[in-house]
Amino acid sequence: MEWNQVIIILIPILVVELGFRGYAIYDLVQSKRKVKFFSKKLWLLLVSIVNFGWVFYLLIGREDPKIKYF
Q1: Residues 28, 57 contacting (CB under 8 angstroms)
Q2: Would you give the distance in Å from CA 27 to the centre of its chain?
Q3: Which of 2, 57, 61, 70 is the most exposed place for a label (fewest CB within 10 A)?
Q4: What CA–CA distance (Å, rounded) separates 70 from 56?
C-alpha cells in the first residue's frame, strides 16, 4: 500500500475524530451541562489530549437530567 492510499484513508478518519472532539468540547463548556465522575476541567483535559477521550465523555461523562435510569 502506498502513502497516497494511506492518506486517502486517514483523512476522513481524522476529520470525524476532530469533529466529535470539537462537539464534545463544545458540549462540555456549556454552563448548564452537568458531568459525572470527574470535574469539568479534568474532562476537558481528557477530551483534549487522550485519543478518543471524547468517546468516554459522550458515553459515560455526561449527566442527562431527562433520563432516569432507576
Answers
A1: yes
A2: 9
A3: 70
A4: 22
